[in-house]
Each structure stands twice: as structure tokens, then as C-alpha cells.
Design brief:
Largest sheet: 6 strands, mixed
Radius of gyration: 17 Å
Helix content: 10-25%
Number of strands: 8
Shape: globular
Distance between the termini: 25 Å
Low-confidence stretches: 4-9, 162-181
Order of helices and strands: HEEEHEEEHEEH
Number of helices: 4
Strand order of the largest sheet: 1-6-5-4-8-7
Mean pLDDT: 83
Structural class: alpha+beta
Length: about 180
Amino acid sequence: ADLNLRASVDADAARPKWQKLFPVGTYHRPDFPEEGITFDAAFFDAMMANWVKAGSHELPLDYFHRGDSDQSPVANDDKVASGWFSDFEVRPDGFYGLTKWTDRARQHILADELCRLSPSFSIDGLDRKTGEHHGPTLYGAALLNDPFLSDLPRVTAGATNADTQSTGSPERAKMDKKKIC
């Protein structure tokens, strides 16, 4: 019976989890415009629309922003994915990605070795098909410990994810009170 319980917990732990990628607010950094970047519903909606327009393909998570193949020299081990985003949601408090971690990344998270996400994005990305700039574009994210957006919550990789569970639309973003209790 214990073996069946453990298999059930392991299977649940491997299920995709919703992770917060961007909080709502204005942020400043030397490489941002002087007025900063405001992450709000309009920014998130444009980012979502550009992802859908590009084909809604899974987006990669890497380790420490080392997965960009355009950077060289980068060792193959540094390009290994830590997970994949398969869906996104705009919520009142920010932008979320449905994350499926690799076994290796999940072990790093559960061992408390890596705990934060750092999104890879452009405020005015280039449409690869048309060559035109089309606004906020998400490329993926990195798993690390020291993100620029330091007020994001810790990532989740365990069997439960009550604080970020969702079912895929604004209506589905309600927490299940039975699971919370």
C-alpha cells in the first residue's frame, strides 16, 4: 500500500504547475527605458497575443539564462532545459506560465537549491516571419536564485500547488477551498 501511495505522490509531483513570471508594477533597470517598464494587463495581453500569433509553441526554461543558442561559447550542458511552459494566463496580480519541470530541475527545487524564475523577454520583440516589431514577447525563463524581479514567489515542484493552481481562464483562477483546508 505504501508503494502505491508513493507512486501516486510522484505522479502528482510531475504534473505541470502554474508559476508566476511577472508581477504587476513598474520596474527600473539600466537597460530599460528611462521611465521603466510597466507590467500590467495591456503588457501581458500583448505578450499573450504574440505567443498565440507565433503558434503557441512550448517555451523553454533553462538554468541561469544560459540556454540561448545565439550566445557563444556556451557548453551543451548549459543549454539543457529545466522545463517547459505549455500555457499562459493573465491574472489580476500578474502573468503566469503552466510549467512542466524536468526531473533534474524538480530535484533542484525540492532540495531547495534553486527557487526562482527569471523571464526572458523583449519589450518590442521581432516577428521572425514578418521582420516587424510587435511589442512584448516572451522567449522563456531561467531557473535560478537571484532574479531581477525579486518579489516573485518561490517556484513550486512538489505534489501540491494550491497557491497557483488554475484551470486555464480567468474564471478558473479561483482556489479550491477544500484543497486549502
